[in-house]
Amino acid sequence: MSEAMKVADEMAERKEVTRVTVFMDSQATLKRIQSDEPGPGQVLALRTINWTDALARKNIHVEYRWVPAHKGIEGNEEADQQATKAAYKYCGSYTETQNPPPFLDYVSFSHVSRRLTEVKWEESKKEIKEMGKKSKHSYRYDLVKRGGNGAVMGARKTIAARFYQLKSGHALIAKYLLRIGKRSDMKCWWCGHEYQTRDHLFKWCKRWKREQKRLWVDGQEGEEGYEGVEKVLKKPKISLPMSLVFAEEKCSQALMDFLSCTDVGRISGVVEEAENSDHEESSDGGV
Predict the structure, then answer these.
(1) What is the largest CA-CA distance in the chain?
(2) What is the rounded CA–CA span in Å between residue 262 and residue 84?
(3) Please, which residues have CB within 8 angstroms of residue 21's CB and are 6 or more apart in sequence?
């Protein structure tokens, strides 16, 4: 609508025009441009009203007429395409958001909120495009430059999630489940030890002895290899709290490799334990 008025104003500059008639098939638009009150479509109404006033000052009479939808009328597709282009050109463009027209003395909060959202998404899209998205299902954005942990950001989402859960202590281990009331004891469901803590799972649990040796002593060979945690921190594992190991970024790749090879931080063991317990009870009942 406002674009049509702008075109009429430009035509008036080139040749004598005393009357402009605008046809539209939207009754809602006709009602909206009669008022500049805050609300949906306010910015478009303000533009239309200001263009109408500008033409009136040039002694050009503007008339709005409603017509039925142009379905089945030749040229409808072309008119619709031009209207769509005009709408996209003057609704939500990044330049206009940064430099709004001078006649917008006041706008509604919903309009301001929408404009801020548009700016945010435009900036986010530009930033993501510059970083380069490598995978749809993993933390593979180039966030290392922004202080991110490269080993974790390059891992699968499920493993990265377990890493941060174990690092914060809010993981699916017996100690945490007991604290939140989901278990009645701290028994390790992997090896049967009395206490299943984070240190136990990473250092002493018999179920993961081979993986623990690789984590603490052997490390990983090859081009992308790493040294064991004991070599990196130059202390034996018995004197290294897991909080310190998780805090040291040089140990992150070894920890991620350990998690990818084990089920530490998963609840599957609890389910298996419950199923075995039910099975035993049913067997005892049969006897």
Answers:
(1) 106
(2) 55
(3) 63, 64, 65
Considering the four listed CATH numbers 3.30.70, 1.10.4160, 3.30.420, 3.10.20, the one that applies to the domain covering 2-119 is 3.30.420
pLDDT digits (tens, 9 = 90+) for 60-94: 888 887 777 656 666 666 666 666 665 555 444 43
Q: Taking the model in full, what pTM does it have? A: 0.47
CA dihedral 211, 215, 217, 222 (to 10 degrees): 100
| Domain residue spans of the chain | 2-119, 156-286
